[in-house]
């Protein structure tokens, strides 16, 4: 009998529904090829949820996610909701989902795809062979620290406040994920912080260094985040696995995306100690191209592959999808963000169709 999985789909906003439709079609091919059965359930998050219910993360959404085997998320956010107070914005829905499911570890691979070297803004010799895994802490740091808000000073000025805080146990648990991840790769871990200025980073560096003693086979180095950003663009091949906090990981993973040609190619997995993971592209809802059939759906498809691998333990099905993506690119199919001379420019839907054709061959 086919193995059954309950998958919650969170298309969200902007290009979200367009790229999610492609991922679902692709997963239907996987079902057939691997004798799996996906029970898809769609739920509201972000701006779409605000419009329908007044809240960015309705309780019903969190419930259905908790009761599923994995969650596939597209993206949230858009101009329409930008002036709402921060706790009512679409982004609060995403943060609430990550916190609600205790998804403290965000794996963001940035691996150069040989077919896309020409799409990178960097020189071939700089990016060829790049294979980096960013392990980003996802439920702590400045996105969650208290106090936060916009307060009034004694002189009547507004003062915006956010707090970057990490406890030892929060650092240790993401540190362990990072050391274990590095061990399965090239056994090189670079921890990124700002410990020359921030106490929170001093504690971070201290704990990661202590943890390093338990992983003598992993070569541990440390970089300040400003230098790390520069090194990522100067000589990205020096990196294997990077571990860092929530804000620095958010920023560095967008920078790492450009090494590989486009943020439209980068997937991620958000994992906790137990329970369903959330699998989502690194990019956002791209409101500038939403509704125009221009989005690259491949980050979403590769997020579905990460879901198969990390969330459902279906490694062969994940390999199948990843190979299909390489093949469709090899065939010359390109969306605008990864277009180069001599290739075939496709819209989001047509890229999905080209991929399905490859997968069904
Ligand atoms: N995980 C999530 O849901 C995230 C949501 N956001 C939200 O998304 C909205 C837009 O944020 P931005 O800073 O503009 O970041 P973004 O990642 O949505 O877009 C940045 C640039 O990359 C392009 N891009 C992104 N994904 C693409 C794709 N699949 N194919 C082709 N081009 C793509 C966009 O057109 C844009 O020019 C905001 O509301 C933001 O808060 C931002 C990042 C993550
Ligand atoms: C939209 C934010 C909540 C987060 C973000 O940019 C990300 O996780 O990449
Ligand atoms: Mg981001």
UniProtKB/TrEMBL annotation:
<dbReference type="GO" id="GO:0009098">
    <property type="term" value="P:L-leucine biosynthetic process"/>
</dbReference>
<comment type="subunit">
    <text>Homodimer.</text>
</comment>
<dbReference type="InterPro" id="IPR024084">
    <property type="entry name" value="IsoPropMal-DH-like_dom"/>
</dbReference>
<keyword id="KW-0560">Oxidoreductase</keyword>
<feature type="binding site">
    <location>
        <position position="226"/>
    </location>
    <ligand>
        <name>substrate</name>
    </ligand>
</feature>
<protein>
    <recommendedName>
        <fullName>3-isopropylmalate dehydrogenase</fullName>
        <ecNumber>1.1.1.85</ecNumber>
    </recommendedName>
</protein>
<dbReference type="Pfam" id="PF00180">
    <property type="entry name" value="Iso_dh"/>
</dbReference>
<keyword id="KW-0464">Manganese</keyword>
<dbReference type="InterPro" id="IPR004429">
    <property type="entry name" value="Isopropylmalate_DH"/>
</dbReference>
<feature type="binding site">
    <location>
        <position position="98"/>
    </location>
    <ligand>
        <name>substrate</name>
    </ligand>
</feature>
<dbReference type="GO" id="GO:0051287">
    <property type="term" value="F:NAD binding"/>
</dbReference>
<feature type="binding site">
    <location>
        <position position="108"/>
    </location>
    <ligand>
        <name>substrate</name>
    </ligand>
</feature>
<dbReference type="InterPro" id="IPR019818">
    <property type="entry name" value="IsoCit/isopropylmalate_DH_CS"/>
</dbReference>
<feature type="binding site">
    <location>
        <position position="250"/>
    </location>
    <ligand>
        <name>Mg(2+)</name>
    </ligand>
</feature>
<dbReference type="GO" id="GO:0000287">
    <property type="term" value="F:magnesium ion binding"/>
</dbReference>
<feature type="binding site">
    <location>
        <begin position="284"/>
        <end position="296"/>
    </location>
    <ligand>
        <name>NAD(+)</name>
    </ligand>
</feature>
<keyword id="KW-0520">NAD</keyword>
<comment type="similarity">
    <text>Belongs to the isocitrate and isopropylmalate dehydrogenases family. LeuB type 1 subfamily.</text>
</comment>
<feature type="site" description="Important for catalysis">
    <location>
        <position position="143"/>
    </location>
</feature>
<feature type="binding site">
    <location>
        <position position="254"/>
    </location>
    <ligand>
        <name>Mg(2+)</name>
    </ligand>
</feature>
<keyword id="KW-0028">Amino-acid biosynthesis</keyword>
<comment type="pathway">
    <text>Amino-acid biosynthesis; L-leucine biosynthesis; L-leucine from 3-methyl-2-oxobutanoate: step 3/4.</text>
</comment>
<feature type="binding site">
    <location>
        <position position="226"/>
    </location>
    <ligand>
        <name>Mg(2+)</name>
    </ligand>
</feature>
<feature type="site" description="Important for catalysis">
    <location>
        <position position="194"/>
    </location>
</feature>
<feature type="domain" description="Isopropylmalate dehydrogenase-like">
    <location>
        <begin position="6"/>
        <end position="355"/>
    </location>
</feature>
<comment type="function">
    <text>Catalyzes the oxidation of 3-carboxy-2-hydroxy-4-methylpentanoate (3-isopropylmalate) to 3-carboxy-4-methyl-2-oxopentanoate. The product decarboxylates to 4-methyl-2 oxopentanoate.</text>
</comment>
<keyword id="KW-0460">Magnesium</keyword>
<feature type="binding site">
    <location>
        <position position="136"/>
    </location>
    <ligand>
        <name>substrate</name>
    </ligand>
</feature>
<keyword id="KW-0963">Cytoplasm</keyword>
<keyword id="KW-0432">Leucine biosynthesis</keyword>
<feature type="binding site">
    <location>
        <begin position="78"/>
        <end position="91"/>
    </location>
    <ligand>
        <name>NAD(+)</name>
    </ligand>
</feature>
<dbReference type="GO" id="GO:0003862">
    <property type="term" value="F:3-isopropylmalate dehydrogenase activity"/>
</dbReference>
<keyword id="KW-0100">Branched-chain amino acid biosynthesis</keyword>
<keyword id="KW-0479">Metal-binding</keyword>
<dbReference type="GO" id="GO:0005829">
    <property type="term" value="C:cytosol"/>
</dbReference>
